[in-house]
Structure formats: C-alpha cells, structure tokens
Amino acid sequence: MGEEQHKKKSRKKIFLLILAVIAAVIGAGVYRLYRFYHQANEALDQIQRYEIPKEEVKINQEVETNEALQGYTNLALFGLDTREGDLNQANSDTIIIASINHDKKEVKLVSVYRDTYLDIGEGLYRKANAAYANGGPSRAVKMLNENLDLDIEDYISVDFGALADVIDALGGLTITVDDAECVHLNNYCVETSEATGGDYEELPGAGTYLMNGVQAVSYARIRYTAGNDFKRTERQREVIAKLIEKAKKADLKTLYRIVNAVFPEVLTSFEKKELVELGTSLITYSLGETAGFPFSHKTGGKGGSGDDEIPVTLESNVEELHAYLFEEEDYQASAKVKEISAQIVEDTGYDEDTDASRENFTTQTGEDFEETEASSEKEMESGTKTELKAESETEISSEP
C-alpha cells in the first residue's frame, strides 16, 4: 500500500472515531475507526469507561423477541452539561438514539426532547433529562428502553466542552442566524464561555458567521425562539452535519489533536476493541433521516400545567417511532409502554383525543460517512475571530 493511500485510509478511520464524540455531544455519528487503532491507542486509553451491568439494562420482554430489530444496532448518545466534569451524573441536555441499519448501511438519528415527560425509573415521572442526572447512564439507558421499546445496551456521553474543542480544532463552523437566534446566542455565550473556558465575540445581528467553539455550542443550545426545543434539536443536528463535512477535510495532524484533547471528556460502555470493530463495519455507512421524539406532543405537565413536553400518547408515539426506525408499520407497543402511557394520561389528562402538536423538524441528509474527494470550494479562514459574510454571498443551508 502506498504512503498516500495509507494516509487517506488512516484519515478516514480517525474521522470515524471522532464522529463518535461529535454524535454524543449534539447529535450524531456513531462511527469509529479501523487501522487508526495503533496510533490512537494512547488516545483511546484516555476515554473513561463504565459498562452498564446486564441486570440494569432492562429490555422489555416483547422487544427481546422482536425479530424486526435484528440487523440493527441501537446506541444512546448523551451530551452533558457537567460543569464539574463528572460524566457519571449530570443533566443530559442532548439525548439521541442512533439506530444503525446494517442491511441498508444507514444510520438514523432521533433526538428525544429533553423535556419529554416519561417514567425515569423508581416510579418517578419527570423530564427525560432528569434520568441521567439522578442515575447516570444506567438509568438513562433504562429509561429509553422501557419507555420506547428499545434494546440499547451501549452509550457514549460527552461534555459540552469537548464539542467546543472539536469545533475550534476544525477552524470553526459557518452558521446562519436570524435576529432572535443572535440575541439568545450571545446570551448563551456567557454561560458557555464560563463552562468551557473559551473566548468569543458577540454577534452584531442576523447573518452568516464563521463561529468558534463557544459560539457554535451556544447556537446548538438555543431553545427560546419559535420552535422551542423542537427547533433546538434541529440546530443540534445541523451542527453535527457541518462538523461531519468539516472533519472530512481535516488533515491527520488536526484529527490527532482533536482526539487527544477530546477523549478525556468522553464516557462510554465500549471497550477499545469494540470501537474498532464497530468502526470497521461503518466505514461506508450514510447518515439518513433525523427526527425528534415525540412526534405528537403537547406542552403541559402533571395536572395540566408546567413546561413538560407530553407525548400524546406515548403508546402511539412509540408505534410511530418503530415504523420510522425499523419499518414496523403494524407495530404494537409492549405491555410496559402501554402501562407507562396510561399513567401519563392519568397524570396529565392528555389522551388520544387531545389536540396535540405535530411540530417536529425531520430532515433527510443522505450524508456519506466515507471520505470524499476534497471540495474545490475555497477553505474558509480559521481562527478565533468571527467572520461576517456579506448577505450577497450564498448562504449555507440550515438543514443538516
């Protein structure tokens, strides 16, 4: 194998591993490496590991015998706001299900809205992000399995600081914001900067900017605009898509720097060998549709008040989820999901006759994770200074 070909293959494997980190932070890539293992061995040793005991995984009985899930690998990806650096217990501001279809060689991502009212375990019905805060990855994975009829056994958790490091190492991301997003982005930058230790410049208004890590992470966290959490998860997936595209063009030196800086901020159930094996099978996979859960929902809470996002109903939403991910058009929710769904109806009064919202941001990307030829488009200037592009220039699409 020629030296140049070897470099291209190594670059591809590094890129796939970095996507595992990116995916857990906001969304999306569960794609790993192959021959990069030897060079990355030291970096991989920096990843924190916690394997969920088998007895704590809790897969619903009907799911264990569901043949439709054969050929799929489902993972949980958590983006954490740790503040104190503890990846075992924190609010999971990002919760993503990555479903890998090995037959179609495609990965679908589903963002579970952090405010979704679910059974988080021990008889407690709260917002979904409280599961990780109260019981770490074990409780969060158990929540996803029991509430959504899934068979997740593995997860990746990453602190938001890791995302900012990746973005800075890649020279920033070009993102378009409107006036409302600009105001909230600047506000979030204060908190994000304090948490990550990064610098930023305030944006002057609507426009297209080359954002650094603090700015792009703040953009992904905006929720107080039209669309609320639904629009926020779309922004998260947008950032993921742009990271994927930028990482494809990064050189080996940049990619090595990223993994060494980011891996200490990663917690996963995977062993090094498992990461390599999974990456081997994912080299040619593409990123398919992405969506948010629940599909039908209403803002409220126990007794009809509050700011929880109520699935209307959980049972019907889970059946739609299985049609979306696994093409099970006639899927019937498990007894456990029906039990939880009935309790949510009792708590909130929101049943199948409730006038629910279908507000969701589903996108089709078709992004190939395999390395592509470098684009002829001129590379944007890297650095920490924000670049305001003229309105007359072609804007980058906001859809991932």
TrEMBL record:
A Pfam family per the record: LytR_cpsA_psr
Chain residue ranges for the region called Disordered: 347-400
Domain (Cell envelope-related transcriptional attenuator): residue spans on this chain: 91-248
Keyword Transmembrane helix: yes
Transmembrane segments: 14-34
Ranges of compositional bias, category Basic and acidic residues: 375-392
Record key words, sorted: Membrane, Transmembrane, Transmembrane helix
Family: Belongs to the LytR/CpsA/Psr (LCP) family.
NCBIfam families: lytR_cpsA_psr (TIGR00350)
PANTHER family in the record: POLYISOPRENYL-TEICHOIC ACID--PEPTIDOGLYCAN TEICHOIC ACID TRANSFERASE TAGU
Name of the protein this chain belongs to: LCP family protein
Native source organism of the sequence: Candidatus Limivivens merdigallinarum
Source lineage: Bacteria, Bacillati, Bacillota, Clostridia, Lachnospirales
